[in-house]
Amino acid sequence: MAAYADLFNQRSNSALRNKLTVAVSIAAETIRVEDVGTANHANRLTWAKGVFEHPDGATESMLWALLAANKDLTIAQIEAATDAAIQTKVDAAVDVFATGA
Description:
Blueprint: H1 4-9, H2 14-32, H3 41-53, H4 55-69, H5 75-79, H6 83-97
Helix pairs in contact: 2-3, 2-4, 2-6, 3-4, 4-6
């Protein structure tokens, strides 16, 4: 398990941030083409538009969700996460950010 200080320091890990930016963008594209009947679609589409307009802001927000979701891993495990593992965590967190508020 990573110490909180170690998790906090991951905010400046450029390799992790780069992977996360791509994963967030892929999630946004998936939402852009999803069926309009998908639950929470309107809010998800608004979130996706925001990602395309300001990917760095979306990445920053999602970084904290990713680190919290992986708090029980070591830093080495977090840094070695596959693209698929990161995408899964991002996809699972989208609705937290895609709200009508």
